[in-house]
Amino acid sequence: MRCNRAFLLLPLLAGCATVADEYPSLAIRDAERVSGTLEPAAAVPYVPPATPAAVLGRLDQLAAEAAGAHRAFLAEAPAARRAVAAAGSAELGSEGWAVASVAVAGLEGARSRAMIALADLDRLMVDAAVEGSELGRIVAVRDTVTAQVTEQNLTIEGLLRSLR
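and the corresponding structure tokens:
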């Protein structure tokens, strides 16, 4: 007759279960209970370092370049408006149309100098943002130049619509 080994182990296991005081309770202990609060730590505000003097110098230079380009644009705009008005409904390629086109191209040249300054300001702003530097002054100058370029774009677009 074959003896099943599982039956041999059952009496041993049953014998272990009768001694209840020797084993710890499986109930949750005080140390296992969740306690405390879920309050976030107080945030420490980030104070960016001051913008380096070299960047401020370049910023002033770019602001002056953009302002000069805007003054040049404003000085050329009346002559371009007169040339476009004089061209009236001139045909494409006529003398009046060519004069007006050259005048508008002069305005586009003045605008391009402002746009170059704007691109350099964008680069300064990105560099400062990557370094974690203060952006306030750079953004203020960039916003001013952006407004000037937007005004120039609107003027050129209006003249080109009139010229066509």
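(Above: one complete record from the training split.) Residues 53-163 form one domain.
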